[in-house]
C-alpha cells in the first residue's frame, strides 16, 4: 500500500509539468493557421498509455472533452507536412510520454478536414473544484469576433471554399493558369491588376501541389491556401479569373479574349450586381449594417489635400488649402474661364523630350524636381480620393484608413470604347450622337434630321443626308454594356435643325432606366443625362447647325472638357504625388498599385454617384449586402465637392502610362515622357 500511495502522489506532482508542456507546445503554433482533422480514439490512447492503476485518476470529463475537441488540431507547413500543435514527447514528463506518443501518431496519420476557428479565448476548462485540467489560450488576434457569423459558420464556409477551390484547380490546369498570368502581365488587358493577384495565387498553388509526393500532402497544401487566401480567391469559377480561364480553355484568340475581358472588367460591371436588390436583400443588408454599426460609415465625401498622410514628392510651395464656408455660385460657376486656360502647350511640347519608366524617373529626377506639371491629355486618367464623411464611424474598407479612390474619364472615354468595340465609328465624324446605359433594357436613339429623315432602328441609314445608325444594341438582351451610335462622316452633315431623343422600347428592369448621351459636333463634345420610363421618349439634344459655327443647343447640356474644373490638353501644376491608399500603411498590392498626381484646382464637378465606394474594396463581411450597397452608392452623391482638393490623374502599375510631364529644376525645364511603370 505504501508503494502505491507514493506512486499516486508522484503522478499528481507530474501533472502540472504535463499541463505546462501542452501550453508551451501550443504557444509555438498558436499564431499560425490551425486545422481540424478526423483523428479518432485520442482519449482512449491517452488512458492506455498511462500505468493501469493511474488511469482512473486522470479519467475526467474535462480532459476527455479537451482531447476530443482540440487534441487533433494541427498546423501545416509550406511542404504540406502536418504537426500536432498539442502533443510533443520531448518536453513531456516521463509518466505521460507513452500517451503523448500514441496521440501524436494518431494525429499525424489523420486527414485534415477543416480550418479551425474559435470564438473562445481559452480552449478547455482550466480548473474545476480545485482540480487542474488541460487547457490552452488562443492569442487575441486569433479569436473570432465577427458579429455577423459564428465561428462554426466561418468553419463551414472554409470547407465550402476548399471544395470550390479543388474544383477550380481540376478544371483549369497549370498551363491554362500560366497563360492567364502571361496575358495579365502583358499590360494589354484592361484593368488586369484587379485579377492578377488571384491568377498568381492559383499559379503558385498549382506549382506547390505538383511538387508534392502524394495526394495527402497536396490536400494539406490546398487547405493551407484556403486558410490564408484573401476573400474571394478560392471561388475560381464564379469570379473574373474564372471567366478568363474559361475563354482560354474554349480556345478564343487573343483579340476575343481581350475584348470579352474588357467588357466584363468595365467598372459598371466588375463585381457589380446586374439586377436591383430584392426586398429580402435590403432587409438582410439593413440587418448587417445594424450589427456592424456602420450606417454612418456609408456616407462618403471628397478628400482634402491635407488629409493625405504620405507623399512620394510634394511641391515645396504647396500649402494645404484652408476649408472655407460654401459659397453661392452661379449656374456656370464651375466652368473655367477661357482666359484662365493654359495656351502654352504647343511651345512647351517643343522642349527636348526624354522617354523613361516611372521607376527610373522616381529614382533619378523626381527627388530634385522643384516643379512638376502634367499634360492633361487623357480623360481616362482623372481620379479623385474619397473618404468617410463621419470620421468617427467604423472603417468599411479592407485597409486601415478610410480613403478610397475612383477613376472617371468622363462619359466620352467609356462611349468611345463601347462604340469601337461594337464596330461603330467614333472618330473622323462631323456629327456623332452616342447613347450609353448599363442594363439589358432596350433603349433606342432616334434622330430627326434637317431634311426630314428619321434615323432609328427601323431606318438605320438616311441616304438623303448621309447619316446612319451603325450600332443598335439589346434588341435581344445580350449585353450589360450597350451603346447606340448615329453619325455623319466629315463633310456629310447638312445644315439645319437636328433633334435627338431616347426611347425606352423594352424596359427589362424595374420601371425606368438611367442613360447618358454624348453629342460631338466638329470635335466639341456635349453630354446629357436622364432617366427614361417604359415606352417614354426623352429629348436629349435639339439644335440648329451651321457649318463653321458652334451649334445653338436648346436644353440642358455641358461640355465634358470642364468636368474636372481644369483645362484639357494643357499643363497643370502637380501639388503632390502619392501611392494609392491601400499602400499607405498596408501591403495590399492585390487591390491595386497606383501612383496619383494631385493637381492644382482639380475636382470632379459631377455628383460622383456610384463612386463613393466599390464593393470589391469593402471588408469581406459586407459581401452579403453587395446588391443593396451598390444600389445605395449608385444613388448617393459624394459630399464636399466644394472642399475637394485631392484629385488629379492616376496611373496603374499594370496599365499603360504615356504620361507627359514638364519638370523644372532650378533654371532648367524639360519634358519627360513616362511610357510605363518599369
Over the alpha carbons, how many angstroms does the gyration radius reach? Answer: 32 Å
Number of strands: 31
Strand content: 15-25%
Largest sheet, in brief, is: 11 strands, mixed
Count of separate DSSP helical elements: 15
Described by the principal axes of the CA atoms, the overall outline is elongated
User: Could you say which structural class the secondary elements and strand pairing correspond to?
Assistant: alpha+beta
Amino- and carboxy-terminal Cα gap: 82 Å
Helical percentage: 25-40%
Q: Low-confidence parts, pLDDT < 50 over ≥5 residues?
A: 1-10, 268-274, 320-343
Overall tally of structural domains: 4
Overall pLDDT level:
87
Task: Give structural notes.
- With 678 residues, the chain is an alpha+beta fold.
- It folds into four domains: 2-142, no CATH class; 151-265, no CATH class; 284-408 and 566-674, no CATH class; 411-561, Lipoxygenase-1.
- It is 28% helix and 23% strand.
- The chain contains 15 helices and 31 strands.
- The strands form seven sheets. Strands 9, 10, 11, 12, 13, 14, 27, 28, 29, 30 and 31 form an eleven-stranded mixed beta sheet that branches. Strands 18-19-20-15-22-23-26 form a seven-stranded antiparallel beta sheet, with helices on one face.
- A hairpin with a 2-residue loop joins β30 and β31 (668-674).
- α6 crosses α9, α7 (193-210) packs antiparallel against α8 (215-228) and α9 (240-249) packs antiparallel against α10.
- The radius of gyration is 32 Å and the shape is elongated.
- Mean pLDDT is 87; it is low at 1-10, 268-274 and 320-343.
Amino acid at each position: 500500500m505504501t508503494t502505491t500511495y507514493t506512486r499516486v502522489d508522484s503522478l499528481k506532482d507530474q501533472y502540472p509539468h504535463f499541463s505546462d508542456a501542452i501550453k508551451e507546445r501550443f504557444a509555438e503554433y498558436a499564431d499560425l493557421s490551425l486545422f481540424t482533422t478526423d483523428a479518432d480514439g485520442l482519449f482512449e490512447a491517452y488512458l492506455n498509455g498511462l500505468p493501469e492503476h493511474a488511469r482512473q485518476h486522470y479519467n475526467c470529463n474535462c480532459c476527455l472533452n479537451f482531447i476530443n475537441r482540440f487534441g487533433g488540431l494541427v498546423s501545416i507547413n509550406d511542404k504540406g507536412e502536418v504537426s500536432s500543435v498539442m502533443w510533443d514527447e520531448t518536453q513531456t514528463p516521463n509518466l505521460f510520454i507513452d500517451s503523448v506518443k500514441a496521440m501524436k501518431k494518431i494525429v499525424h496519420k489523420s486527414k485534415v478536414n477543416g480550418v479551425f476557428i474559435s470564438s473562445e479565448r481559452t480552449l478547455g476548462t482550466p480548473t474545476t473544484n480545485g482540480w487542474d485540467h488541460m487547457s490552452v489560450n488562443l492569442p487575441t488576434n486569433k479569436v473570432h469576433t465577427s458579429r455577423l457569423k459564428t465561428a462554426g459558420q466561418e468553419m463551414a464556409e472554409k470547407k465550402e471554399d476548399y471544395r470550390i477551390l479543388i474544383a477550380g484547380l481540376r478544371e483549369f490546369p497549370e498551363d491554362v493558369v500560366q497563360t492567364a498570368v502571361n496575358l495579365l502581365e502583358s499590360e494589354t488587358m484592361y484593368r488586369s491588376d484587379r485579377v492578377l493577384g488571384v491568377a498568381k495565387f492559383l499559379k503558385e498553388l498549382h506549382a506547390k501541389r505538383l511538387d508534392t509526393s502524394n495526394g495527402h500532402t497536396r490536400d494539406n497544401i490546398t487547405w493551407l491556401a484556403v486558410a490564408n487566401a484573401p476573400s474571394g480567391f478560392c471561388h475560381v469559377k464564379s469570379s473574373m479569373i474564372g471567366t478568363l480561364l474559361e475563354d482560354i480553355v474554349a480556345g478564343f484568340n487573343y483579340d476575343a479574349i481581350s475584348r470579352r475581358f474588357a467588357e466584363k472588367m468595365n467598372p459598371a460591371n466588375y463585381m457589380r450586381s446586374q439586377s436591383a436588390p430584392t426586398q429580402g436583400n435590403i432587409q438582410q443588408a439593413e440587418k448587417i449594417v445594424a450589427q456592424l454599426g456602420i450606417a454612418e460609415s456609408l456616407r462618403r465625401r471628397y478628400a482634402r489635400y491635407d488629409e493625405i498622410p504620405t507623399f512620394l514628392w510634394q511641391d515645396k510651395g504647396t500649402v494645404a488649402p484652408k476649408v472655407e464656408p460654401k459659397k453661392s455660385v452661379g449656374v456656370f460657376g464651375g466652368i473655367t474661364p477661357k482666359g484662365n486656360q493654359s495656351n502654352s502647350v504647343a511651345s512647351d511640347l517643343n522642349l527636348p523630350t526624354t522617354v523613361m519608366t516611372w521607376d527610373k524617373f522616381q529614382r533619378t529626377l523626381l527627388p530634385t524636381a522643384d516643379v512638376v506639371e502634367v499634360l492633361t491629355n487623357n480623360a481616362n486618367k482623372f481620379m479623385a480620393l474619397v473618404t468617410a464623411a463621419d470620421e468617427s464611424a467604423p472603417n468599411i474598407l479592407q485597409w486601415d484608413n478610410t480613403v478610397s479612390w475612383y477613376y472617371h474619364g468622363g462619359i466620352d472615354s467609356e462611349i468611345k470604347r463601347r462604340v469601337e468595340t461594337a464596330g461603330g465609328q467614333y472618330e473622323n465624324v462631323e456629327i456623332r450622337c452616342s447613347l450609353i446605359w448599363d442594363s439589358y433594357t432596350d433603349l433606342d436613339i432616334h434622330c430627326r434630321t434637317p431634311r426630314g429623315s428619321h434615323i432609328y432602328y427601323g431606318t438605320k441609314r438616311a441616304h438623303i443626308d448621309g447619316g446612319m445608325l451603325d450600332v443598335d444594341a439589346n434588341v435581344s438582351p445580350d449585353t450589360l454594356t450597350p451603346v447606340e451610335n448615329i453619325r455623319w462622316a466629315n463633310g456629310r452633315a447638312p445644315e439645319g435643325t437636328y433633334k435627338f431623343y431616347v426611347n425606352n422600347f423594352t424596359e427589362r428592369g424595374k420601371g425606368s432606366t438611367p442613360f447618358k448621351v454624348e453629342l460631338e459636333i466638329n470635335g466639341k463634345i456635349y453630354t446629357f443625362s436622364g432617366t427614361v420610363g417604359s415606352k417614354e421618349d426623352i429629348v436629349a439634344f435639339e439644335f440648329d447647325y451651321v457649318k463653321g459655327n458652334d451649334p445653338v443647343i436648346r436644353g440642358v447640356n455641358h461640355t465634358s472638357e470642364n468636368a474636372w474644373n481644369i483645362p484639357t490638353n494643357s499643363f497643370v501644376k502637380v501639388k503632390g504625388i502619392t501611392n494609392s491608399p491601400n499602400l499607405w500603411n498596408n501591403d495590399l498590392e492585390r487591390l491595386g498599385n497606383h501612383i496619383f498626381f494631385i493637381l492644382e484646382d482639380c475636382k470632379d464637378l459631377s455628383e460622383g454617384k456610384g463612386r463613393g465606394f466599390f464593393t470589391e474594396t469593402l471588408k469581406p463581411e459586407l459581401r452579403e449586402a453587395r446588391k443593396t450597397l451598390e444600389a445605395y452608392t449608385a444613388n448617393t452623391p459624394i459630399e464636399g465637392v466644394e472642399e475637394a482638393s485631392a484629385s488629379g490623374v492616376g496611373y496603374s502599375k499594370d496599365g499603360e502610362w504615356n504620361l507627359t510631364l514638364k519638370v523644372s529644376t532650378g533654371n532648367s525645364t524639360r519634358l519627360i515622357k513616362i511610357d510605363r511603370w518599369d
